[in-house]
Amino acid sequence: MPIRYAGDAYNRAVGTRSAFAGLSADLEREGLPAMVVNDGDREEQDEIDVFLARFRPQASGVGSFNDVRWWRGVRYVRFSPLGTVAPPGTGNHGKRRANDLGYPYNSDTPAHRRAQVLAKRHNITCEGMGFREWWHWTFWGPLGAIASAAGGGNTTRPEDIMNAEQEKKLDAVLQALGAGGLQPGQWDDTIMGNTRDIEAQVNGLPDALKAIMAQVNGIPEVLADIRKRIGVSEAQVEVIADAVAKQIGTPMVKLDYAAIAKAVNDDAARRLMS
Prior knowledge:
This protein is an alpha+beta fold. Helices cover 36% and strands 10% of the residues. Strands 1-2-6-8-7 form a 5-stranded mixed sheet. A 3-stranded antiparallel sheet has the order 3-5-4. The protein starts with a strand and ends with a helix.
């Protein structure tokens, strides 16, 4: 199976697309999985939306995450626990050079370590290792022609793994469930994954649980713990956790399970969805 672009991800630069396809083919020849690109190019407006969903203008102070950026002559401080992003126009996603890869190329796995070696042939490095984002890989060679969008889904609008509106909702959910007290760097150490197709495996669960799952976009440890607390069978927990792990890999962030469990009722879900 050749390299795959999930959802709306794509690479328009021929050089970038060819380099990642070549690296993926090399990995497959050694019996390793093909690469899955969860996020590739980002257009200017998408970069702006994501940046403003995580940073706000602030003349002084460094905020809870000690993350200060300058953009268009204005000083910004990160307020979101969802991790850092480069100011619009400066990051390698916007320059059509970077891809965020899925498991097993998003964390410290044997496949990831082998990919680091093979990537040198293709002028690719795991740039994200320098800022705790092991899924972020960058091509440093000539971009070549900029082609039309390539990759799955609706190619008219590129998306982040979570777009700005989803990130705002997730921030609200974390606050509502008592998980807003994450310390600097805690969220940055996690790997966010798109698990919408896991929904099919939770049919019959309480509406509140499905609503929360949709909002937090499938964080395995959280989902598994909620299921245990509301009496879902261990078998169901294992099926769901296994399906998520196959897509994303390592366990995710540990949130305030007690607060989440307490919030699991239909009224809470309706409030979260509003």
